[in-house]
Specification:
alpha/beta; 14 helices; two-stranded antiparallel ribbon; 2 domains; 9-stranded mixed sheet
Length: 369
């Protein structure tokens, strides 16, 4: 869903800053592969594992797709897909960028990661390791754990109190929000999945204000609490944000935001998958979810509804003919909504951006009041 909604292109760089097994980079590579195949007029339904890897796809993997993870045991998957032993998956602490230079001087580290590090350095906005110039960032940061080290907290606006003093501690996922934005160029876009409370807790309103100040909130897609079972039962939402760009995407006020809440998670209460009665094109089972249409194998979902929303609003990364009838039908089917930031602020003082909060039924009640 996230990949389809952000629509990465072959000429764009992407990074996952909490990569684990590299799900976001891998699916980004699949997405770009389909675009390359379409550009060449080839059959996109042929099996990925049996095809000869084109030079364009290998170049994309080697030069455009990156991942960082704190856990050295995280699967380094990109080298397998590139097919030449290269990898841009780096073992680094995303939040503690101040110590990256120290880490990269470790001989045992450079033996494994030096080539990827050389390429990552080319994406820096300056000589330090704070700001980068990525086009796209997708990540599912860890929910658990607080950061208490003042040295790290002092580097983040969200790590400070209103009067400037450092917080005593702060959720790791909160710092990831700010850190991830540092990786993006002006106009860059991001998809992350923070815990649900960040979207509606009164105590977290300052986080939402921080996001809205210099960035556009594109969409919020509410995920069910069993989405990540059995590994985790934390309810989350996917948040989509784009940085304003003075030249290509100048800031506007009162822009619309797309909201939708997942109805079908594809999991039961135990975390076991629930499958569709039909099989995919290659005989594989299809998990029952309403996030996206799996290349036309299932009904259109949240991603396809957002694509029509984005076309209607003129978002440059999702061009093409706009189908208003399709957009309205999907909004009805998904109980999704489009609401302007100014309306959202006027109707709820805490600036909640929870997809459940702005469901169709809620908006109808507001209109009656």
């Amino acid at each position: 869903m996230c990949v389809k909604m952000l629509n990465p292109r072959e000429d764009e760089t992407m990074i996952d800053t909490a990569s684990g097994s590299c799900g976001f980079p891998v699916h980004t590579i699949f997405h770009v592969r389909e675009r390359i195949i379409a550009d060449k007029g080839l059959d996109k339904n042929r099996l990925f594992t049996f095809e000869k890897k084109s030079a364009r796809r290998v170049d994309y993997v080697n030069e455009k797709a990156f991942a960082v993870d704190f856990d050295e045991k995280a699967a380094r998957t990109l080298n397998l897909i590139a097919g030449d032993g290269q990898t841009n998956v780096l073992h680094l602490n995303t939040l503690d960028y101040e110590r990256w230079d120290e880490r990269t001087k470790d001989g045992s580290w450079t033996d494994i990661y030096s080539e990827g590090w050389k390429k990552l350095k080319k994406t820096r906005a300056a000589k330090d390791n704070r700001a980068f110039t990525f086009d796209i960032l997708m990540a599912n940061p860890p929910f658990a754990g607080d950061i208490k080290e003042s040295r790290i907290l002092a580097k983040y606006d969200l790590g400070r109190k209103a009067k400037g003093a450092c917080q005593n501690e702060i959720g790791r996922d909160i710092l990831f929000i700010e850190r991830n934005l540092d990786f993006l160029r002006p106009g860059g876009r991001m998809a992350i999945a923070p815990p649900q409370g960040r979207f509606n807790n009164s105590s977290d309103a300052y986080i939402r204000a921080f996001l809205a100040e210099l960035r556009r909130i594109l969409a919020v897609a509410g995920l069910r609490g069993d989405t990540f079972k059995p590994r985790a039962s934390t309810k989350t939402s996917a948040l989509f944000v784009q940085k304003w760009d003075e030249k290509r995407r100048p800031k506007v006020e009162g822009y619309p935001i797309f909201f939708a809440a997942m109805q079908e998670s594809g999991k039961d209460n135990s975390g076991d998958k629930i499958h569709e009665p039909l099989q995919g094109k290659h005989g594989h089972l299809i998990v029952r979810r309403d996030l996206f249409n799996r290349g036309g194998e299932t009904r259109d979902g949240i991603a396809e509804a957002f694509v029509e929303f984005a076309k209607k609003d003129g978002l440059s990364f999702l061009g093409g003919p706009f189908d208003d009838a399709k957009r309205k039908a999907l909004l009805e089917y998904l109980e999704a909504s489009e609401i302007r930031l100014s309306e959202l602020l006027s109707e709820n003082e805490r600036f909640g951006i929870d997809a459940e909060f702005v469901k169709k039924e809620y908006l109808q009640i507001i209109n009656l009041l």
